[in-house]
Amino acid sequence: MEAFAQFVPLILIFVIMYFLLIRPQQKKLKEHKAMVEALRRGDQVVTQGGLIGKVAKVKDEGEIEVELAEGVKVRVVRSTIAQVLSKTEPAEG
């Protein structure tokens, strides 16, 4: 019984770490994944490199085409999108 009592503080520390660090990080990753999957043409986005542009084309293989300026398009890996500034309304039809 005494040996178990020595492990109680370690178990408590692990539980506290889980709720303060691990769980919020998992939630943040899940939200980011949902945001990236919901990207559509016309959305204004910010990349992790700080570039701001509009989504010109959504490709299936994990990348999108972002228009930084008129006529300047770059291919960007979807997971490097840090933030969506403005969403476009879905087209009716």
Which tags fit this structure?
93 residues
Structure, described:
By secondary structure, the protein is an alpha+beta fold. Helices cover 39% and strands 32% of the residues. It has 1 helix and 5 strands; from the N terminus they run H-E-E-E-E-E. A 5-stranded antiparallel beta sheet has the order 4-3-2-1-5. A hairpin with a 2-residue loop joins strand 3 (63-69) and strand 4.
Tally of contiguous helical segments = 1
What spatial order of strands do you see in the largest sheet? Answer: 4-3-2-1-5
Q: Into which percent range does the helicity of residues fall?
A: 25-40%
Give the biggest beta sheet: 5 strands, antiparallel
Succession of helices and strands: HEEEEE
Could you tell me the mean pLDDT? 89
Alpha-carbon distance between the termini? 69 Å
The value of Rg in angstroms is: 21 Å
Low-confidence stretches: none
* Overall geometric form: rod-shaped
The SS-based structural class is alpha+beta
Number of beta strands: 5
| Percent of residues in β-strands | 25-35%
Subunit structure: Part of the SecDF-YidC-YajC translocase complex. The SecDF-YidC-YajC translocase forms a supercomplex with SecYEG, called the holo-translocon (HTL).
Membrane topology: Single-pass membrane protein
Protein name: Sec translocon accessory complex subunit YajC
Keywords: Cell membrane, Membrane, Protein transport, Translocation, Transmembrane, Transmembrane helix, Transport
